[in-house]
Amino acid sequence: MASNVNPTVRRRRLGQELRRLRELKGMTAEEVAERLLVSQSKISRLENGRRSISQRDVRDLCGVYEVEDQRVVESLMQMAKDSRQQGWWHAFGDIPYSVYIGLETDAESLRVYEPQIITGLLQTRAYAEAIIRGGSPESSEQDNDKRVEVRLRRQSRITADKDPLRLWVVLDEASLHRVVGSRQVMREQLEHVMELSQLPHVTVQVLPFEVGAHAGINGQYSILEFADAADSSVVYIEGVTSDLYLEKPHDVQKYTVMYEHLRAQSLNVEQSRRRIERLAKEYAR
Predict the structure, then answer these.
(1) pLDDT in tens, 165-202
(2) Which sign, positive or negative, has the C-alpha torsion 12, 148, 111, 164?
(3) Fewest beta carbons less than 10 Å away: which of 4, 100, 152, 170?
């Protein structure tokens, strides 16, 4: 594996390989768990890349799967060792959505639908501070400051000179009207969105109020896609106490179709810019 692949993606690829070995052996996760005297949920978490995996775990699983090629075993054990390295975000302590950050860091493209707020990758510092403090009223100032810095650091993916993240965002018009921080903060935020939307790899569309019921009525979600064919697309749905990651092809396909409907129901790019510009001027009054 390339040395620049982040630990989240390492775990994910290792989990996919372990699942492939299990399926080749014709065993269920429950059968493997019984053989190793562990819970079935542990096997599932190892295979979906949501849990760190030790070299001992890999050795034990290879034993159950009767992997005879020692080079394969050593390669998988090295992947396990690499997967326990820390990404840049770990320097900020315990970040609730660290798995997502790892995926976003390695993604080639990201499609986001955001119904309530301006999405994180497009936020100004002032807007991010107001959103994080308002959304986490019981968190300490220090923890909120860390989350703001992580959010701003994530934005380097869309401003990078080399291989920037391709970003497509559908913003519900409600997110443009919700006054976060102050009217001045909102004016600067909307101007920032317009500026970033000029980048060739960033597309922003507004889903207007007049659409009424729409394909995203059930809430926010993101679709991450990766350059490496070995990495399947992921649908990410953020929760309050836990997040949901969908990787099964039919789940990803369903959300992809929903996103195409959202794009079709939204204002086009130029109309969206005009709508955002008009609201930015209203905030300046």
Answers:
(1) 999 999 999 999 999 999 999 999 999 999 999 999 99
(2) negative
(3) 4
